[in-house]
Specification:
Oligomer: single chain
Number of strands: 10
CATH class of the largest domain: Alpha Beta
Strand content: 5-15%
Radius of gyration: 39 Å
Strand order of the largest sheet: 1-2-3-5-7-8-9-10
Order of helices and strands: HHHEHEHEHEHEEHEHEHEHE
CATH superfamily of the largest domain: Glycosidases
CATH architecture of the largest domain: Alpha-Beta Barrel
CATH topology of the largest domain: TIM Barrel
Shape: elongated
Distance between the termini: 129 Å
Number of helices: 11
Helix content: 25-40%
């Protein structure tokens, strides 16, 4: 007799596990996401026109039923006139070029602050905020070093180890709205006298280079203002920096040497006095076409108290544009400054500047400059 086998019951778990319900739920969520996205997109498209319409109706109501306009929303009618004012269109104005007469604030800056066009542009913006319109770059210092690549044969041994692209910097400053000024020291130069010995001040009428103190104390040679080669060198420097884009020059040390042993300093045969020679040279330099040359002199020399290196007060030179460098902090009242200005006015000068004591605080410098303006000075150093 055969044994009956147990009957196997197949269980179809997929039919009762709920996976179909899960799929339906996912479809519903996806459908709602699509619907919400479509609603959001439509709202985004119609929101701006709707807001524009609403704001237009509001401004129409505020303006008494007039047609809404973007000008109406942004302009205020003049109270003194019942007529509607035409909408003004503002045109951006270029930065005005500084005045060519030197009026306003000046600043003497270190070359390291403006040794690239980018740095020069940034510096110009900072200085303009302080009222500066003229920026002086010291391109030749009182040792004789030049900080740009001069092409003058006499200057080849005077070019400093670190130089700048003076033309690019001048262009950057001018484009930024300030006037670039080349600062040049004239006859206080201890380098060129050893390149061309005919340019040097001599010792006791001998072919020996005179030094402004003993060699052991670091004595320096000077260019001889009576040397035609030295005179021409300064002329050529002014012309060269003009070609680099500096239409304004601040010339310092238009003078004979200062130091010890001056009684042994020899300049060769002179046709006139020191005063006459320096006046002639100053007028020659300021007469160079296309460049405005300013001259700087110490206050003590202007007063005639320490004028041995000039022959007389530089106020007698008949120069057109002059700066007085204050060497005494007490010279901060308008009366004292007017005394410095008066002889230059009598001598025919038309541009007058004052430079405060080096190292002065901004507050002290502001006091001096205010007094200088009251005295009649039209140019002044904001950063001395």
């Amino acid at each position: 007799m055969k044994k009956s086998r147990p009957v196997k019951i197949k269980r179809y778990r997929r039919s009762f596990s709920g996976s179909g319900a899960k799929k339906n739920l996912a479809r519903r969520i996806l459908l709602w996401v699509v619907i919400l996205g479509a609603v959001f997109g439509i709202g985004w498209l119609v929101a701006k026109p709707g807001l524009d319409l609403a704001s237009g109706l509001w401004y129409r109501y505020k303006n008494g039923g007039g047609a809404p306009s973007s000008q109406a929303a942004n302009s205020t009618p003049a109270a003194s006139s019942s007529q509607p004012q035409p909408a003004s269109t503002e045109t951006p104005q270029p930065t005005p070029a500084p005045a060519a007469n030197g009026m306003g604030g000046w600043a003497m800056v270190a070359l390291s602050e403006a040794d690239t066009p980018e740095k020069a542009t940034a510096l110009a913006a900072q200085l303009q905020a302080q009222g500066v319109t003229y920026v002086v770059l010291p391109l030749k210092d009182d040792r004789g070093y030049l900080y740009y690549n001069s092409a003058l044969p006499l200057a080849q041994k005077s070019i400093a180890a670190t130089t700048v692209d003076a033309a690019a910097i001048a262009s950057a400053l001018r484009n930024a709205g300030v006037t670039p000024v080349a600062g040049l020291c004239a006859f206080k130069d201890s380098l060129v006298p050893f390149v061309d010995r005919t340019t040097a001040v001599k010792y006791n009428n001998q072919d020996i280079t005179w030094l402004d103190t003993s060699k052991e104390l670091g004595g320096k040679a000077w260019l001889n203002p009576n040397s035609p080669v030295a005179q021409q060198y300064i002329t050529d420097l002014i012309g060269e920096v003009k070609g680099l884009g500096f239409d304004t020059v601040l010339l310092q040390n238009l003078q004979f040497p200062e130091g010890t042993g001056l009684n042994l300093a020899s300049y060769g045969a002179m046709a006139g006095t020191k005063e006459q020679l320096l006046a002639q040279l100053g007028q020659q330099y300021q007469g160079i076409d296309g460049v405005s040359v300013w001259f700087e002199f110490p206050a003590a020399a202007v007063r005639g108290e320490m004028a041995s290196s000039y022959g007389a007060s530089p106020a007698t030179f008949g120069l057109q544009r002059v700066f007085v460098r204050l060497d005494d902090a007490a010279l901060s009242d308008s009366t004292g400054l007017a005394g410095l200005l008066s002889p230059f006015v009598s001598g025919g000068a038309t541009g007058f500047g004052v430079r405060g004591v080096s190292g002065s605080t901004p507050e002290a410098l502001a006091v001096v400059n205010d007094a200088a303006k009251q005295a009649g000075f039209t140019s002044y150093f904001v950063i001395p």
